[in-house]
Amino acid sequence: MTQTLDPEDNKIITLARSARARGGTPEGAAVRDETGRTYAATTVALPSLRLSALQAAVAMAVSSGAKSLEAAAIVTEADDPAEQDVAVVEEMGNGTLFLAAPDGSLKGRYI
């Protein structure tokens, strides 16, 4: 899918790719809140706590005072975002959700 993205949207895809590579995890995510602050995270897979990369990034944003999201990005091999990831973005104000491949190419735009 070839689309021109806003530089700020490219930035969160790059942050999500970096988080994924740094953590060596299957998924990385990044979000941008209503003030332009960004948060990046990877999947959390502990015996007592499981969060998708996007859920972890949103938790970081909310715990830092974010009230809504302008955009979110997930970098993954998956072809579609998980239902719970779409739901959390909708819950945070219907920002755009980008799904990108590990190489950063855009797979889809949701919400």
What would you note in describing this structure?
This protein is of the alpha+beta class. It has a single domain, classed as Cytidine Deaminase, domain 2 (3-Layer(aba) Sandwich). 33% of the residues lie in helices and 31% in strands. The strands form two sheets. It has a five-stranded mixed beta sheet. Strands 3-4 form a two-stranded antiparallel ribbon. Strand 5, helix 3 and strand 6 form a beta-alpha-beta unit. The protein is globular. 40% of the residues are buried. The mean pLDDT is 95.
Characteristic key phrases:
single chain; 111 residues; alpha+beta; Cytidine Deaminase, domain 2; two-stranded antiparallel sheet; 7 strands
Please render the helix and strand layout as text.
Blueprint: H1 7-23, E1 28-33, E2 38-42, E3 44-46, E4 49-51, H2 53-63, E5 69-75, H3 83-91, E6 96-100, E7 106-110
Parallel strand pairs: 5-6
Antiparallel strand pairs: 1-2, 1-5, 3-4, 6-7
GO molecular function, one term: catalytic activity
Organism: Microbispora rosea
Protein name: Cytidine deaminase
